[in-house]
């Protein structure tokens, strides 16, 4: 029987019950457990023995790079065939095994020494991966790789990009500060004050005070000259790298192998969607304008800093349900029990609890917004033994109150289910080999809004530079539209396959076979075709998304 390890990190949300009525899965998340680690040996993070301390990253990296060097030589000296494919799989796994773990630890570990060591490992392995990516057929030695002028330039550009990514991501999170005398005295307390300066680190979009929202919007989004130059350089560098390896633009490079395939398809999808939603957009804007009248604002116009607040107010007014009515049903343990039952009925997969060893987990008091990290991919090793995948879900959830467990809001439940979907994709993937190209590990991705190499110069921004706060320019990029297209696919699958029987084992097995089992080894459109038993058009995607958005507008669930 195959099994996989799933680690769900939930901070300060455990509690005690005098009578335990939970199943083992529910109790794991709703009941406090005592650990007796003082007699245990430190097994290292994720049971990687080297990672019992920060210095272990260098050891793990050194071992992975030595193994990679051996495998590159093996791939270059063997004739094409099954051995070559197997070697590529081993090469990808040896690097990803360390890099993916480091990518997680650099943002999740509370110890700065661990984070810094993991960051160095990410940079070092990322540089090596780009070297291998530019050696398409791996039929020459690493020495010849670096002697090729074009490949050397590509490696240098990638190294430069890693630095620019770090600079931009760091800068995008920094607050803007102004002299506190420039703000009305009665709203200063809404922000962080440092001496004579007011620090504004967000949009305060949920504030009922219109002046607070306006001040935050104008100050937080005020252009930072050095960060504008960083972003310009980042985009130009990515464009140069893309053209160097034969693509028209960075978006063309990033979209290769996706469901859309080209920027032109993405733009057609977005254009059609905009046209289909034009009436609804007008209706929503009218509703926001009516809602603003109710706030007795001196400015009747809907301003940019009003959009999020008024949209939320409309939803609250439309679906005003007392949280005390539904929140007792949504403890974290109850939600995990529900997911367990769902996966059991649909996929024949169940959860089991496992006691962690000393040093295996990083901390219980780290807080992080919802993320999904694959720590280790599943694969059939060369010795015939299946390597179980390890996946981490991190969620920022409220603490328990006395004997009341951690209770989730509807949006938290939605996030938990969303992230669990990512986890099950990783766990149930059974593709062999795990990767066929090394470029899957680290694409530099750019937003479709930044497809060309220069779109964000200082002359274009005037008084607000929202793009400097859009950190997804680094992480998602030319694929940010995919949230919409994925939602369209989900809508089609739901309506065609699960609407009549949400717990259909037949459709659950088809979903597992056609969509989950392949990981990243099969073209997305082919997986959708297998699930729907037909080939959807761009128009089909748009229609499905519009139906889903309309249904979501009419119903709070």
Automatic annotation (TrEMBL):
Coiled coil: none
UniProt keyword Glycoprotein, yes or no: no
Co-factor: note: Binds 1 zinc ion.
Major subcellular site: mitochondrion
Compartment(s) where it occurs, according to its Swiss-Prot or TrEMBL record: Mitochondrion
Residue ranges annotated for the Peptidase M3A/M3B catalytic domain, each copy included: 204-370, 371-430, 459-545
UniProt-listed InterPro entries: M3A_MIP (IPR033851), Neurolysin/TOP_dom2 (IPR024077), Pept_M3A_M3B (IPR045090), Pept_M3A_M3B_dom (IPR001567)
Pfam families recorded: Peptidase_M3
Cofactors that this protein relies on: Zn(2+)
UniProt keyword terms in alphabetical order: Hydrolase, Metal-binding, Metalloprotease, Mitochondrion, Protease, Transit peptide, Zinc
Protein family according to the UniProt entry: Belongs to the peptidase M3 family.
PANTHER family, per database record: MITOCHONDRIAL INTERMEDIATE PEPTIDASE, PROTEASE M3 THIMET OLIGOPEPTIDASE-RELATED
Protein's name in the database: Mitochondrial intermediate peptidase
Organism: Labeo rohita
